[in-house]
Design goal:
single chain; about 375 residues; alpha+beta; six-stranded mixed beta sheet; four-stranded antiparallel beta sheet; disordered N terminus
Length: about 375
């Protein structure tokens, strides 16, 4: 059902699905885009009857969609007014639960653990609803009430419709105790699933057909940045980069980037295409991107590269040090998902129908490319 009014605060909603192989994924995206298009049409009709237009910001949009085949993970990145985004998110999640099966790893089998699937707790693994604030009214303490309310609305609706097949865990501002996401995940099987290597965490048996789902609202707009290393970097060396970047190490080890959570994951490509090479990736969540930014991660990454070069030069001689450039250690460092500024930039095109046709097609085409479709 389309909402009669879209007058609430701006939010972004990232929905992470544990699948990059299901044939249903393109349809999930196209239906979500259609849903957003209908909400924008309702918005235009309302504004035509209202001489005091409140804003020229789109009701809802799919800003980005991404799929990572080795990680067996897809994500849909929505943005818009909180009630409209919640409506689209609920529909997209319900469609995913109805149409995609959860293929579980056997967590007791080490060979399966190295399949490099991204850590997960369920089919709809994670839903993050975050506040968006324009530069003109941005403050040091963002307002999260609308985002938290939307997160609880999404969780409540999904729980009511699927109580026997999925378990919901709330975190952040959507949780009464404001429990951090990492803390909630440590109470699940997340850190012992997929390619995660944190073997000290407690394991829980899968009790629900579609698994579990973490839904919540962080204090700030969380950004994601991954550093994929080359085959020249083994697991032990990759972990040293993770330690260099983890924000929690600042107080105890004198290293780290403020607000950054980092996890070392194996990234295994399809053997037929890439020879089955195993590389490692340091996946970073930037919980305070205005303080601990991508630029700061890059600074620490360059320092780490210099340290690795010095270590190698001890064995090879100083005259060979120049051969170990960034490309020797880092295959790719890249953003995953969206930024607050990106969402605002897309949403400002509220009434431009031609723009939305082109934009939606671009997002859809790129998503199909990520999925390996031509």
């Amino acid at each position: 059902m389309i909402l009669q009014s879209c007058t609430s605060s701006l939010v972004a909603c990232n929905i992470y699905i544990t699948s990059a192989a299901s044939a249903a994924l393109p349809s999930l995206l196209s239906r979500a885009q259609d849903h957003c298009r209908q909400l924008r049409l309702v918005q235009q009709q309302q504004q035509c009857n209202d001489e005091n237009k409140e804003s020229n910001t789109a009701a809802a949009a799919v800003v980005h969609a991404y799929a990572d085949i080795p990680y067996d993970r897809s994500s849909f990145h929505l943005a818009g007014r909180s009630d409209c985004v919640a409506e689209v998110a609920i529909s997209l999640i319900q469609n995913a639960l109805n149409e995609i099966e959860l293929k579980n790893n056997n967590n007791n089998d080490a060979s399966n653990k190295l399949e490099a699937r991204h850590p997960f707790v369920g089919l709809v693994d994670h839903v993050s609803v975050m506040s968006i604030t324009s530069q003109e009214i941005r403050t040091t303490t963002p307002t999260t009430a609308a985002a938290a309310s939307a997160a609880r609305q999404i969780g409540s609706q999904i729980d009511q419709s699927n109580s026997n097949s999925i378990k919901i865990h709330y975190y952040g501002m959507a949780c009464p105790n404001n429990t951090p996401l990492a803390t909630v995940r440590r109470k699940t099987s997340f850190f012992n699933s997929g390619g995660a290597h944190d073997n000290n965490e407690n394991q829980q048996q899968q009790l629900y057909e579609k698994g579990e789902c973490t839904i919540g609202t962080p204090l700030e707009f969380v950004e994601n940045y991954n550093i994929r290393l080359t085959p020249n970097v083994d697991f032990g060396t990759a972990k040293t980069l993770t330690q260099v970047l983890r924000g929690r190490n600042i107080a105890t080890k004198g290293m780290g980037v403020s607000g950054v959570e980092a996890l070392t994951l194996p990234y295994i490509r399809h053997a037929a295409d890439h020879g089955g090479n195993v590389v490692y990736e340091v996946a970073c969540n930037l919980l305070e991107p205005k303080i601990g930014s991508v630029e700061m991660i890059e600074v620490e990454l360059e320092k780490w590269i210099q340290q690795q070069k010095q270590q190698l030069s001890k064995y090879d001689g100083d005259d060979t040090n120049d051969q170990y450039d960034r490309d020797y250690f880092v295959e790719e460092a890249y953003r995953v998902g969206t930024t607050e500024e990106q969402c605002l930039s897309v949403l400002k095109n509220a009434d431009e129908d031609e723009y939305w046709m082109r934009y939606d097609q671009q997002v859809f085409s790129r998503f199909n490319e990520f999925l390996g479709y031509k």
